Amino acid sequence: MSVLDRKLLRDLLRLWAQVLAIALVMACGVATIVTSVGAYRSLDETRSAFYDRYRFATIFAGATRAPLSLGESLARIDGISAIELRIAKSVILDIEGMAEPAAGIVISIPDRGEPSVNRLYLRSGRWPDPARSEVAVLESFAAAHAMVPGSRFSAILNGRKRDLTVAAIVLSPEYIYALGPGDMVPDPRRFGVLYMPRSAIEGIFDMDGAFNDLAARTQRSARLADVTERVDALLKPFGGTGATDRVDQMSHAFLDNELIQLRSMATVIPPIFLFVSAFLVNMILTRLVALEREQVGLMKAVGYRSLEIVWHYAKLTLVIAAIGIAIGSIAGQLLGDGLTSLYADFFSFPFLMFRQSADLYAIAGAISAAAALAGSARAIWSVARLPPAVAMRPPAPTRYRSRTGDGRATVQVSQLTMMAMRHLLRWPVRAVLTTLGISFAVALLITALFSFDSVAYMVDTVFFRTERQDATLSFVSSRGPDALQAAARLPGVLRAEGFRATQVVLRNGHHRRRLMITTIPTNADLARVLDTDLIPVTPPPAGLVVSEHVASLLHLSVGDRMDVTLLEHGGRRAQARVTAIVQSYVGLAVYMHPEALDRMIGDGPRISGVRVALDASRLPDLYSAIKSTPAIGGIALQAVSRTKFRETIEENIGIMTSVYAALAGIITFGVVYNSARIQLSERARELASLRVLGFSRGEVSGVLLTELAVVVASAQPLGWALGTAFSWSVVQGFDSDLFRIPFVIERSTFAVASLVVLAIALLSALIVRRRIDGLDLVRVLKTRD
Amino acid sequence: MSHWNTDGDERILHARGLTKIYRSGEVDVFALRGVDIDLYRSEMAVLLGPSGSGKSTLFNILGGLDQATSGQAWFRDLELTACSEHQLTRFRRDHVGFVFQFYNLIPSLTAWENVALVTEIAPSPMPPDEALAMVGLQERMGHFPAQLSGGEQQRVAIARAIAKRPEIMLCDEPTGALDSKTGVLVLEALSRINRELGTTMAIITHNAVVRQIADRVFSFRDGTIVEAVRNEHRLEPSAVSW
């Protein structure tokens, strides 16, 4: 080992605490890159592979009832490569040991052979036999009820309770994210997908030789808009409800959403850590070089080349980076595994592996090392530039400037405070960077914590102010007003409000969106619509009430007229005016007054379902009544959704918050501890002189800690501002057609973020304080600066 | 214990049998070997000796900067060798003025502020302006250390030491980093303070010329005082040079 390398090793050992602090900050950057990019890739590639191998459809369409003979014309449409004509029906599942009914969808599969589109992955069992009331069940639902091939359960199919046997446990590219009606997060216990051979399902639903659901794959070169247009044209006479591409497919859309979030996480967080670590490396190396000045002079005097000396210090940086990369890679791997298993709870893939990619570690490592080298470049360069004779002389004393003229204090502050302030002002760039570093920590914490506020606000708005019903009953098909009275008479129903919902395409110029119009009656108390100030509004007797999100998608403002295509009514077109813009965080919400919608559709007063408030003590009676009421095709239990949503979100946010809090803690510690240590080594002599002059330990520590306190204090407002900005960008990142997060940051969040950072700063300060107490007075006075 | 010698001089600092051993690996290095010394009110004492002879170690113990291995040292009735860290801080703060070879000024404070640093915590200080005037720096008090010459910096250090009106000033190689002419200026400042304020002064030096301005001279070698001489004729600093 060369002497210089031995020196390097000793320097590293001497500076171990600072080296570790920097390496940890750097590790955070590496870990977030490895985790988020790794998770993104895992999810993206798993999804692509699953889609490809199991031939996930690119076009989806529904109809009331279309003849199978239409299949030939459909298959001839230019661009379509495979087509599957299916029967898909909502059902109610009656699971033993579960009081509330579960919602389900039953989908037909060919009697023999696999579907040509949306194939199923057979996890266990065998394909169901058409003659034996057998079904294949989606794995998430089967797992939630401990079903295995051979298990039996009941379902209300077309109003009749039937016993079904599980023949197979399957996974489908169509239900990677299986969301039940009325739910905001998946609840596999209450939502299941069943696959039944066509010949069995045909008889049950009276769909012989017919289909009501279409899934098709298109050629890569196909123009989806043209294909959907032609599909629509063919299905129109049969109650076609409009074809869509994958963008509107629920499972796909949720996955997309998740991928976008992961990508934004990979682009926002790591740069913060790389910036902070580059800054820390710069700080520590600048100081090290300043201390080593005379040795550098000597090395040059005895004949070392500048390049050799530069390389010596660059190696120090690289070793720190290597430690950081190693820690970060291990942490990233662990976090990646954790994130992947979190996905496994949410998304049903036949396989999901956290993918190891060497290039990722290489990229993360290279970026980190480059950031560290960039940070230390100036310090290293200053070494190379010094002529040996100059380097061997002690540096000139630091120049300070007085702002008061004759040097006498005009303001009444102690000389100790004056020392602290002058020192801060002497290195404004460093002070600003330190402040910025700490403010990043505050900002990260706010970014992590604000989601609690936003979600609390969202839950309050969605579940307690708008969707206040305990359950929503959907009818198999729309019914007359007397159905409302019938529903109100169901056991345990305290209040019932009917609603009508219909699929439409709204068009404003070239902006168009497929969505559902729902009615809200006058004096509605269960489901309400809130304006942007959260005040309940009743949809006026004419026109549409649209949510802010829909208004911005379609570029609408109050008074604008738009085109409404009624998909469930033969694609008939109507005109409507926007009468109000309201708040909504879930889906694409558009509301109408019941009379207005009835008038637009023109088939008299109808309702599609009923929202109900329930007496909790009579739930079992209600559930059994629902299970034996053929007209009720589905039930969404908002009360259960609410709890499930809270649990899921709180668990996810809880994990995220702990990770961010740990990261913020590391940044704070890294910045504060290093700043204090460097100040201490720069000013040890000065501080020891104060001790000699008779200042107490407390007073001397005060000089250093005052500076830190000023920096940490001024980092708070900056951190709040940055945190607000980061949180805002997170909210933007979450913004999708599925849901939006309100931008709400409570004051307590700012306070908690600041308190955490202050506590960590205090801890670092106390560690440094111990060192100040241990200053060697005699030795310090004997040496020259 | 008596604080007066036979000539009626008040004893300020004294030590008996002071020993200091530094452990360096397996070897014990004796920095002080049982030193006895008495310093009296208003006297100018010079501690002379080559480097490593123990004078700085004695200085550090008498100034409350270091602990003795054995033996005792007193400031009046206060036994320094039995003091706690806190008591030693108090002692330095209230009674001792230090002057160091490398000045030990705070670079971020002006000359005036460096002096005020001490007057803020001293019980009955003189105004910083007055202390700076005594060392002839009234015109330079707005300057930072980096803007002052070595001699000027050392005079600021002296002003800082006297501003608290200490009973004793301990000066460790005050002219060590200065040329002869500047060194004389510094010695003049010290001598004047000794005369005008009656401050007891102990100056450590390896410069034998400085002995001529002292009342008494202690010569150090190998951790002991080998000679203590009283000068019958103390010279003015202006009369010496090296």
From TrEMBL, chain A:
Keywords: Cell membrane, Membrane, Transmembrane, Transmembrane helix
Domain ABC3 transporter permease C-terminal per the UniProt entry, residue ranges: 272-388, 659-772
Pfam families: FtsX
The keyword Cell inner membrane is assigned to this record: no
GO terms under cellular component: plasma membrane protein complex
Localization in the cell: Cell membrane
Topology class, membrane: Multi-pass membrane protein
Tree of life domain: Bacteria
Bilayer-crossing regions: 15-40, 268-290, 310-327, 360-384, 427-452, 653-673, 703-728, 748-768
Keyword Transmembrane tagged: yes
Main location: membrane
GO terms of biological process kind: lipoprotein localization to outer membrane
Family statement: Belongs to the ABC-4 integral membrane protein family. LolC/E subfamily.
Name of the protein in its database record: FtsX-like permease family protein
Record organism: Methylobrevis pamukkalensis
Automatic annotation (TrEMBL), chain B:
Entry-linked SMART domains: AAA
Keyword Cell inner membrane carried by entry: yes
All copies of domain ABC transporter, residue ranges: 13-242
Top-rank lineage group of the source organism: Bacteria
InterPro entries: AAA+_ATPase, ABC_transporter-like_ATP-bd, ABC_transporter-like_CS, MacB-like_ATP-bd, P-loop_NTPase
Entry GO MF terms: ATP binding; ATP hydrolysis activity; transmembrane transporter activity
Keywords, comma-separated and alphabetical: ATP-binding, Cell inner membrane, Cell membrane, Membrane, Nucleotide-binding, Translocase, Transport
GO cellular component: membrane protein complex
UniProt entry tagged with the keyword Transport: yes
PROSITE patterns membership: ABC_TRANSPORTER_1 (PS00211), ABC_TRANSPORTER_2 (PS50893)
PANTHER family tied to this protein: ABC TRANSPORTER ATP-BINDING PROTEIN MG467-RELATED (PTHR42798:SF2), LIPOPROTEIN-RELEASING SYSTEM ATP-BINDING PROTEIN LOLD (PTHR42798)
Protein family (similarity comment): Belongs to the ABC transporter superfamily. Macrolide exporter (TC 3.A.1.122) family.
Protein name: Putative ABC transporter ATP-binding protein
Organism field: Methylobrevis pamukkalensis
Phylogenetic placement of the source organism: Bacteria, Pseudomonadati, Pseudomonadota, Alphaproteobacteria, Hyphomicrobiales
